[in-house]
Amino acid sequence: MSSRRAGPGSRLVSSDDVRVVPRTLETPTALLSMDVETDYGTGRRDALDQLARFLDVVGELAVPLTAFVEGQLFERQPQTCALLAARGVDVQLHVYDHATSGDSPESLRQGVDAFTAFMGRPPDGYRAHSCRLTPELFEALADFGFKWDSSVMRAYALGHNGHACFRQGDYFVLGEGLFEFPVGRWRGLNLPLNHPYSLLAGRAGGQILRRFCGPADRLVAYNIHMTDLLRVPALDQAPYGALFRLLQRWMWLGQNGDTFAFFRLMYAYLRDRGFSFETTNGCYERLTESR
Question: How many separate domains does the chain show?
Answer without folding.
Answer: 1
